[in-house]
Write a structure and sequence with these properties.
Blueprint lengths: L1 H5 L26 H8 L4 H13 L3 H5 L6 E2 L4 E4 L2 E2 L5 E2 L7 E4 L2 H8 L21 H14 L9 H12 L4 H8 L15 H15 L1
Length: 212
């Protein structure tokens, strides 16, 4: 840092600035499953399934929208997450570039059982015109519903935080949480630790027990 200042890349070294590396962002409110269910009660019936599945698989909104029927194994309740959609509606790689398989929580499996399945690369969640549902529509529905429930600060991405917190409370290991959430590995060693399908299914069963 001293040389960066000397060579003119920095006006002042942050090593001399008090609190330069402090996280000054405001803490987010803590939400619960009860809060999620309160909002879901205000969501129009046709839009409840996407939010239930989003919670059950800890999906980012782009990952949820990009899901095709070919990605879902109805026998095991597992979903293969290999892509996402961006705000423009284009299909792109996942945020971390990783692929993962997640066994949905039971409520997500039950939600999908009420839909008519299709074969191949057909979107699971369709818009009113038949194409892949627009994230702006989901966000608008969620925003209206959270305000109606008296929880205006509960963002749609908080669904992922609430559900993954339950995973942690179930006694799952850090690797289980990373696997289900699709987080980037924190170090090279973690890349070579793989959660088995049996272990992932066991984690899902224990979280379902917490929800019950």
């Amino acid at each position: 840092m001293r040389y960066a200042v000397k060579w003119g890349y920095l006006r002042q070294t942050p090593c001399l600035v008090e609190g330069a590396f402090a996280d000054t962002s405001a803490p987010r409110p803590t939400f619960t499953v009860i809060d999620f269910r309160a909002i879901l009660a205000h969501v129009p019936e046709r839009y409840r399934v996407p939010f239930r599945v989003m919670f059950a698989g800890h999906f980012r909104i782009g990952e949820l929208i990009a899901l095709d029927w070919a990605d879902y194994d109805r026998r095991t309740g597992s979903v293969s997450v290999t892509k996402q959609t961006n705000p423009a509606g284009q299909t792109i790689p996942t945020k971390t570039g990783q692929h993962r398989s997640v066994r949905l929580l039971q409520d997500g499996i039950s939600a999908l059982s009420g839909l008519t399945p299709a074969v191949g690369a057909v979107p699971i969640f369709k818009g009113v015109r038949g194409g892949r549902i627009d994230r702006r529509v989901l966000r608008r529905v969620w925003d209206n519903s959270r305000k109606a429930a008296g929880l205006p600060e509960f963002r749609i991405h908080d669904l992922r935080h609430v559900s993954l917190t339950l995973v942690a409370e179930s006694g799952a290991s850090l690797k289980d949480i990373q696997t289900r959430g699709g987080h980037a590995s924190v170090n090279a060693a973690m890349r070579y630790q793989h959660t088995t399908h049996e272990r992932d299914a066991d984690v899902a069963r224990r979280v379902d027990a917490l929800l019950a």
